[in-house]
C-alpha cells in the first residue's frame, strides 16, 4: 500500500478547506434570522414563507399591506431573493404596493443547488404565489437578467395573472446568448458539479440550457399583451443591449416602453435602483389609471 507524502495530504486537505469555504461564502442568500433582523432595524413587518409544489419549495419574503396591488421581484443567476431585499423597505413603494421577492428554483431556500432549467416549469412554480395574490391587482413582475425571461414566460403562460412586466437587463434573445458550452458542459459533469458551490452549480445547470429555452419561447412573445417596461444599460457587458431591441421587436401585441441608459451596466438593481422604482410607479399609475377610466 502506497502512503501519501505529507505535502500531498496537506494539498488535498487545503483544497478541501477552500471548497468548503467557497460553499459557505458563495451562497448569495440571507438566513431567516438575517432577514428578520434586516427589517426589524427598519421597523418594517416582514413575512417569510414558502409554497410547496410537489417536491419543490417556492420560498419568498414579503412586506406591505395585504390588500394593496402586488409587485413580485425575480432575481438573476446566480442570486437569491436578497438581490431585491432593499426594495421591500422602499417607503414610496410600500405606500403603493405589497412587495414580494422570491428565491428561484435552485437558489436561496428554494431547493438550494437543484436548478430547474425549464423556464416553463419556473413559471409554473411561481404561478401559485400569483394565485394567492390575484384578488389584489394589479400584479406587476420585475425580473433581472435571467429573471427577465422567467417573468416573460409567466405573462405568456398565465396572462390572467400578470398585469405588467418590468424586464431589467433581461437575457431574452437566444441569438445573443454567449457560446459558453465549451466550459459549461464540463462543469456540469459529476466531478466538477460536486466541487462547485451549490449556487454556481445551479446557475451553470440553468444557463447551459438557456439558449434552447429562449428558442422555445420565440413563437410565444406575441401572446404578451400587458404593459411592459424594459430597462437596459448601454454598457452592459453580460447582457447585450440588443436584448432590449429584441423585446421591442417581438412583443407586437403589448405596449412596450424601452428605457436605455448610457453609462449604466448590468447591475441596475444595485447601481441604479431608482430606475426600477420609477418603472414600478409608472406601471402602477398606468394600469390603475386605466381601471379608473373603465369605471
Quick structural gist:
Helices cover 42% and strands 16% of the residues.
Uncertain runs with pLDDT below 50, 5 residues or more?
1-5, 8-26
Strand content: 15-25%
As a whole number of angstroms, the C-alpha radius of gyration is 20 Å
- What's the story with the biggest beta sheet? 8 strands, mixed
Structural class: alpha/beta
Q: How many strand elements?
A: 8
What strand line-up does the widest sheet have?
1-2-4-3-5-6-7-8
Ends: how far apart? 85 Å
Estimate the global geometry from the Cα principal axes: globular
Estimate percent helicity: 40-55%
Write down the secondary-structure element order: HHEEEHEHEHEHHHHEHEHH
Enumerate how many helices there are, as a single number: 12
Mean pLDDT: 89
Structural commentary:
This protein has twelve helices and eight strands. The protein is an alpha/beta fold and 295 residues long. An eight-stranded mixed beta sheet has the order 1-2-4-3-5-6-7-8, with helices on both faces. Residues 1-5 and 8-26 have low confidence and may be disordered.
Amino acid at each position: 500500500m502506497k502512503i501519501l507524502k505529507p505535502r500531498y495530504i496537506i494539498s488535498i486537505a487545503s483544497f478541501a478547506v477552500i471548497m468548503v469555504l467557497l460553499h459557505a461564502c458563495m451562497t448569495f442568500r440571507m438566513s431567516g434570522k438575517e432577514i428578520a433582523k434586516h427589517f426589524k432595524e427598519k421597523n418594517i413587518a416582514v413575512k417569510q414563507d414558502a409554497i410547496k409544489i410537489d417536491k419543490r419549495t417556492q420560498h419568498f419574503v414579503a412586506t406591505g399591506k395585504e390588500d394593496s396591488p402586488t409587485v413580485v421581484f425575480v432575481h438573476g443567476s446566480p442570486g437569491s431573493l436578497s438581490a431585491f431585499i432593499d426594495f421591500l423597505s422602499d417607503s414610496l413603494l410600500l405606500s403603493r404596493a405589497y412587495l414580494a421577492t422570491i428565491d428561484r428554483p435552485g437558489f436561496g431556500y428554494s431547493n438550494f443547488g437543484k436548478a430547474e432549467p425549464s423556464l416553463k416549469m419556473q413559471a409554473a412554480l411561481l404561478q401559485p404565489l400569483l394565485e394567492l395574490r390575484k384578488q389584489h391587482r394589479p400584479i406587476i413582475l420585475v425580473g433581472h437578467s435571467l429573471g427577465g425571461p422567467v417573468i416573460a414566460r409567466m405573462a405568456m403562460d398565465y396572462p390572467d395573472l400578470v398585469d405588467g412586466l418590468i424586464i431589467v437587463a433581461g437575457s431574452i434573445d437566444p441569438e445573443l446568448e454567449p457560446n459558453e458550452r465549451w466550459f459549461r458542459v464540463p462543469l456540469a459533469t459529476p466531478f466538477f458539479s460536486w466541487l462547485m458551490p451549490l449556487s454556481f452549480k445551479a446557475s451553470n445547470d440553468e444557463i447551459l440550457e438557456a439558449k434552447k429555452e429562449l428558442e422555445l419561447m420565440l413563437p410565444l412573445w406575441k401572446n404578451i399583451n400587458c404593459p411592459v417596461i424594459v430597462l437596459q444599460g448601454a454598457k452592459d457587458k453580460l447582457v447585450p443591449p440588443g436584448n432590449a431591441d429584441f423585446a421591442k421587436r417581438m412583443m407586437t401585441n403589448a405596449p412596450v416602453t424601452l428605457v436605455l441608459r448610457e453609462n449604466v451596466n448590468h447591475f441596475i438593481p444595485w447601481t441604479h435602483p431608482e430606475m426600477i422604482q420609477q418603472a414600478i410607479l409608472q406601471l402602477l399609475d398606468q394600469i390603475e389609471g386605466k381601471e379608473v377610466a373603465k369605471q
